[in-house]
Amino acid sequence: MKRKSTLILIGIMSILLAACGSNGLSDTLDWEVQNFQATTQSEKPFSVEEMEGKVWLANFIFTSCETICPPMTRNMAKVQAMLKDEDIEAQIVSFSVDPTVDTPEKLKEFGSEHGADFSNWTFVTEYKQEQIQNFAQESFKTVAMKTEGNDQVTHGSSIYLVGKDGKVLKKYKGDVDVPYEQIVDDVKAAK
User: Fold this and answer.
1) Which pLDDT score, from 0 to 100, does residue 18 have?
2) For the CA atoms of 68, 55, 121, 150, what is the dihedral angle to 10 degrees?
3) Model confidence over 46-76: pLDDT tens digits?
4) What is the tally of structural domains in the chain?
5) What is the reported pLDDT for 147?
6) Which of 1, 39, 95, 149 has the most beta carbons within 10 angstroms of its beta carbon?
């Protein structure tokens, strides 16, 4: 009887330890984020490798967007403010899906117009269109497609939570019906 109790206890502890290993988040996506080189809005080099060991949020935007990018950026600014209010550290990275148009200066202006606090929010550009298209597809399972002759870019509208191990943990609506509290809770759980 004692052996059976010990085995049950070991089983329960294994389940609890497994839950702790996933930082309390269930149904994580576990998509590995590939390394990516870019330039920030402050004209400094950026690499996804710099995010190792950090919890971060990511999205895809472009400055001449006529539809979802301005509200998505304002929504991310609200998430940023909520995280700050709760004293939760997390980085934010917005990847331009229109790098031929989006200069660091344009990204800085765009971020400022929509409430970004650059202390922990980085906007990145200065790579080839094909690179961001492949990166978005391979790492975030989303589209970033610019068709010739069109100044608009087809791209996803999600906010992604990336864990300290460089894997996408969660994906949220970023344009409308944004689950602000859930994002904040998940960032806290991923810490």
Assistant:
1) 39
2) -30
3) 999 999 999 999 999 999 999 999 999 999 9
4) 1
5) 84
6) 95
> What's the one-letter identity of residue 107?
L
Sequence-separated (6 or more) residues with CB below 8 Å from residue 109? 63
Element holding 89 (H helix, E strand): none
Residue type, 1: M
What does the pLDDT average to over 18-23? 43
Residue 76 maps to a domain? yes
Cα 172 to Cα 174: distance, rounded to the nearest angstrom: 6
| DSSP secondary structure code for residue 30 in this structure | -
Alpha helices in 59-179, H assignment, sequence order:
69-85, 104-113, 129-140
Residue 17 lies in a domain: no
Please give the pLDDT value at position 23: 55
CB atoms within 10 A of CB 40: 18
**Other Cβ atoms within 10 Å of 134 Cβ, number:** 14
SS3 184: helix
Domain membership of residue 179 as a residue range = 26-190
- The answer to whether residue 16 is domain-embedded is no
For the chain, the maximum distance between any two Cα atoms, rounded to a whole number of angstroms, is 75
Determine contact, residues 122/92, Cβ cutoff 8 Å: yes
